[in-house]
Amino acid sequence: MLSRWGGWFILISLALATTWLVRNLEEKLSKSQVSLSQTPDYTLQDFTSTQMDKHGRLKNTLTAEIMVHYPDINAELTKPYLVFYKEEQPTWTVRAERGEVKPDGNQVWLLGNTILLRQASDQQKNLKIISQNVWVRLDTEYAETAAPTTILTDSGKTHGIGMRVFMPTQQIDLLSQVRGHYVLP
User: Both 53 and 33 in a single domain?
Assistant: First the structure.
C-alpha cells in the first residue's frame, strides 16, 4: 500500500513541477516580447520627412537631429523642427526639445519647451507662441496643449493656460486664465 501512495506522490509532484515550469517559461517569453517591441529597429541622423498635398505641392516638413524608430510604438525625435507651407511658402514653424511621432506618422508630440512661429505675410505680422508639450496633427495643421502659453507680438504679450492653434485659418484660442498687455504702435 505504501508503494502505491509513493507512486501517486511522485506523479503529483511531477505534474506540479511541470505546471510551474510552463508558467515560468510563459512569463519569460512574454517579458522578452515586450522588451523586443521596446528595442529600436533603426535610428536615423539628420532625419527629414516631407509631405505633399493632393496637388503635389509642399505641405510640411519634419526634421530632427536623431530619430529612433521602435516597432509598434512611437518613434522618438531629438530637436524636432516642423515647417508648414502654403503655396510653397512657409507659414508656421515649430521647434521643440524632443518629440514623438505616432506609428501612423500623422500625430506628433512636441515635448519640453516648444516655440511656434507664424511667419510674416502681407496680411499678418510675425507671432511667437511659447509653450510646452504640444500635440500636433499634421493632416489638419492643428496644434494644442494644456500647458501655460505665452503669445508675443510686436504690440503685446498674452498669457493663458491651454491653447489651440488652427494654422490654415490663423486662429489661436487660449483656453483659460487669459491676461494680456498691449502697447499701441
Answer: no
d(CA 56, CA 51): 9
Give SS3 for 117: strand
C-alpha distances out from residue 4 to 10, 12, 14, 15, 72, Å: 10, 13, 16, 17, 55
Question: Of 90, 47, 89, 42, nearest to 68 (Cα)?
Answer: 42
List, for residues 128-168, the tens digit of each pLDDT value. 999 999 999 999 999 999 999 999 988 889 999 999 999 99
Rounded Cα distance between 90 and 119, Å, is 7
Q: How far apart (Å, rounded) are the C-alpha atoms in residues 101 and 85?
A: 20
pLDDT 10s digits, 7-66 = 666 767 777 777 777 777 777 666 645 444 577 788 889 989 999 988 899 999 999 999
Is the distance from CB of 127 to CB of 157 less than 8 angstroms?
Answer: no
Place of cell 510552463: 22
Query: Which residues constitute the domain of residue 18?
Result: 1-37
**HEC-encoded secondary structure of 67-116:** EEECCCCCEEEECCEEEEEECCEEEEEEEEEEEEECCCCCEEEEEEEEEE
- For residue 145, what is the domain's CATH number? 2.60.450.10
